[in-house]
Amino acid sequence: MRIRVSGFPPITSKEEIKRIFSALGTVIDVQKRPGKSVAYVTMPYDYQAMKALFALNGSKILGRRIVVEEDC
Questions:
Q1: How many other CB atoms sit within 10 Å of the CB of residue 13?
Q2: Pairing of strands 2-6, 29-32
Q3: How many other CB atoms are there within 10 angstroms of residue 7's CB atom?
Q4: What is the pLDDT of residue 72?
Q5: Which of 29, 42, 52, 64 could covalently link to 24 via disulfide, CB atoms 3.0 to 4.6 Å apart?
Q6: Given strand 38-42, what is the order of strands in its sheet?
Q7: Residue (of 30, 11, 10) closest to 20 by Cα position
Q8: Which pTM does this prediction carry?
Q9: Strand (E) positions, 1-72?
Q10: Cα angle at 7 between 3 and 13, to 5 degrees?
Q11: pLDDT tens digits, one per residue of 48-60
Q12: Contact criterion met (CB below 8 Å) for 52 and 67
């Protein structure tokens, strides 16, 4: 399942995003363009992706509230 993550500080690295999501399941890939506050996280198991979505949506990364949603 591919998840869209937005709202984090643009300086947040792909590695930091992967570390955060890996705490909740397996992460296959993180796509993020430098200087942007949108990333796409791919997780192989839907139940892990949904767990991450519910756990992280509305949480804060470096003081900014993030939005985590399924990428359609």
A1: 12
A2: unpaired
A3: 14
A4: 79
A5: 52
A6: 29-32, 38-42, 2-6, 67-70
A7: 30
A8: 0.92
A9: 2-6, 29-32, 38-42, 60-61, 64-65, 67-70
A10: 75
A11: 999 999 999 999 9
A12: no
